């Protein structure tokens, strides 16, 4: 039994306490780390997330009166009560905007979704770059899919969840996080082409190789809603326009030097373009390594990806750089920041035998620099969204 299934009885009991009845069912959706392919998902590029054992559980029952009631063990303020026929995209809706947005997106798509009572419990840290928002959305989407017999496939649920976050919550995220939460499978990383949405499960057997993937949550919290993300996104679009391509995905590594020449008046855009083009290439190289059973060979690609995010895309921060540098200095196979940037988490690939040494080195480096202690845990490639009872 996984931790998620262990948590289900507690979530059922919490639902009963809040709503005074047993839930109709319980659904789970995981957080994720992205192995490689950062900020490529809004450039029609490649990404490669894997699901974490950390999940958001949604206990839910349908309602016949069109009322939507939302409650989370992880949020203050009690039950949020809304009418499904009065849902409108609006800024500042708080946490409930994520699940309410899913209901809105489904109804906008003409799907027969009515009211529901929902209670959430989560072990996905919020704002840590591990995608608690997509876990919340996808757990909601899967619950409604079953409660209202919509018959949607996981990738269709991911699209609706993304639409909820883009158009209802107002955060312009790409499709990666929701697809990871909906589609990942145990023991694999998900190679996703964000242009045609084709996907492939790539075996990622860390334990079998004597390797470990550590996640270092720096506890520095980012705000995706702030301007930096939208700024990078707009810069990438400007670069694509200037180069006459539909998206930066269409610039190959071979074309990069000439493309950078054409952007010579715009050093900031040059950096963005260089990151996206080299990052897409790194994803393809990581896939080739894993397909060839050369798992250790991805280490230097991860570290090169970090340098690119730090120097070209300029979204790292002191704590992320320190985590990566300290881990590599202590003998890690490779390391990089993961997620949106400006805080959140780094991932570190280590030999199992070195895991303790590397973990200790990172903790000591943070203490010496006067940063709060990071939270470090092992990422085991886990299952995507599912019904748990
Ligand atoms: P990330 O997705 O990287 O964790 P985001 O800023 O995208 O960070 O999403 C975090 C937000 O999602 C939280 O501030 C909160 O509003 C909402 N959220 C996520 N999980 C939960 C939960 N279990 N209960 C209530 N709100 C949640
Ligand atoms: Mg998020």
TrEMBL record:
Localization per Swiss-Prot or TrEMBL: Cytoplasm
Protein's name in the database: Galactokinase
Enzyme type, top EC level: transferase
Binding site for ATP: 72, 127-133
Gene: galK
Residue ranges of domain Galactokinase N-terminal in the record: 14-62
InterPro entries reported in the protein's UniProt record: Galactokinase, Galactokinase_bac, Galactokinase_CS, GalKase_N, GHMP_kinase_C_dom, GHMP_kinase_C_sf, GHMP_kinase_N_dom, GHMP_knse_ATP-bd_CS
Amino-acid positions noted as binding substrate in the UniProt annotation, renumbered to this chain: 38-41, 229
Gene3D superfamilies: 3.30.230.10, GHMP kinase, C-terminal domain
EC number(s) stated in the UniProt entry for this protein: 2.7.1.6
A GO cellular-component term linked to this record: cytosol
Pathway(s) of this molecule: Carbohydrate metabolism; galactose metabolism
GO BP term, example: galactose metabolic process
Keywords: ATP-binding, Carbohydrate metabolism, Cytoplasm, Galactose metabolism, Kinase, Magnesium, Metal-binding, Nucleotide-binding, Transferase
Binding site for Mg(2+): 133, 165
């Amino acid at each position: 039994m996984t931790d998620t299934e262990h948590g289900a009885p507690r979530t059922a009991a919490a639902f009963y306490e809040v709503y005074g009845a047993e839930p109709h069912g319980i659904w789970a959706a995981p957080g994720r780390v992205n192995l490689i392919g950062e900020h490529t998902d809004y450039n029609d590029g490649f990404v490669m997330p894997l699901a974490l054992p950390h999940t958001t559980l949604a206990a839910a029952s349908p309602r016949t009166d069109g009322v939507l009631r939302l409650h989370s063990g992880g949020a203050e303020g009690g039950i949020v009560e809304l009418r499904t026929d009065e849902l409108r995209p609006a800024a500042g809706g708080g946490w409930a905007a994520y699940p309410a947005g899913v209901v809105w997106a489904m109804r906008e798509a003409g799907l027969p979704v009515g009211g529901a009572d929902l209670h959430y419990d989560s072990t996905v840290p919020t704002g840590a770059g591990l995608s608690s928002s997509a876990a919340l959305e996808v757990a909601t989407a899967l619950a409604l899919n079953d409660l209202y017999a919509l018959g949607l496939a996981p990738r269709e649920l991911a699209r609706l969840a993304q639409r909820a976050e883009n158009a209802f919550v107002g955060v312009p995220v790409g499709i990666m996080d929701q697809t990871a939460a909906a589609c990942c499978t145990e023991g694999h990383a998900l190679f996703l082409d964000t242009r045609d949405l084709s996907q492939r499960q790539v075996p990622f057997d860390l334990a079998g190789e004597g390797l470990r993937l550590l996640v270092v949550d720096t506890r520095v919290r980012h705000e995706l809603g702030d301007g930096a993300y939208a700024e990078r996104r707009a810069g990438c679009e400007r670069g694509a326009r200037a180069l006459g391509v539909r998206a930066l995905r269409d610039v190959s590594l071979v074309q990069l030097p000439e493309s950078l020449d054409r952007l010579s008046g715009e050093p900031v855009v040059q950096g963005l373009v260089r990151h996206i083009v080299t990052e897409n290439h790194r994803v393809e190289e990581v896939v080739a390594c894993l397909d060839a059973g050369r798992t250790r060979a991805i280490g230097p690609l991860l570290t090169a990806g970090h340098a690119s995010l730090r120097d070209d895309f300029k979204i790292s921060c002191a704590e992320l750089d320190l985590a990566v540098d300290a881990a590599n200095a202590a003998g890690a196979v490779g390391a990089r920041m993961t997620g949106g940037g400006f805080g959140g988490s780094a991932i570190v690939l280590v030999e199992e035998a070195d895991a303790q040494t590397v973990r200790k080195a990172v903790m000591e480096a943070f203490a010496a620099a006067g940063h709060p202690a990071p939270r470090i845990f092992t990422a085991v490639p886990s299952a995507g969204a599912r019904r748990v009872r």
